[in-house]
Amino acid sequence: MKAVKHCGTFMECMANSIKMLLLVAVCTIGTAALGYAIFEDYAWYQNIEWAVQSVTSTGYGNYPAQTIGGSLWSSIVMLWGVIVILSLIVAVFVEAFRKDEHKLTDAEQDWQANALITIAQAQGLVLPEYPDSSKEK
Fold first, then answer.
1. Which residues does the chain have with pLDDT short of 50?
2. What pTM was estimated for this model as a whole?
3. 10-125 in CATH: which number?
4. Domain ranges of the chain
5. Rounded to whole angstroms, how far apart are CA atoms 48 and 19?
6. Is 32 buried (19+), middle (13-18) or exposed (0-12) by CB count in 10 A?
């Protein structure tokens, strides 16, 4: 699965990626809070606070696990936060930079077109005309 959909500019890639990261973060925190509520006897808002702290590896220790199930769930959530969320963040930036670096500037595109024409003329080839969309309108 690609982390970033095809996008035009670096900023478009980042905007799409941030939406995806927020969706993953909200789902992760919601699932973590629900799981913690199964094992531990805290209020719903405390479970959400615990989930945010655990997924982001902050871990203030305000709501420690009192059961073995809560401890195991805490370990899973912390590993998920470190491995998955961090991996997604890195993938987002790598993909956005990679897409941006492969774009040619106008000057580079002109140089390539002129080089192709020069090579074709040297070989005695005739290149077909490129349709100009502005003339059709």
1. 1-5, 137
2. 0.58
3. 1.10.287.70
4. 10-125
5. 20
6. buried
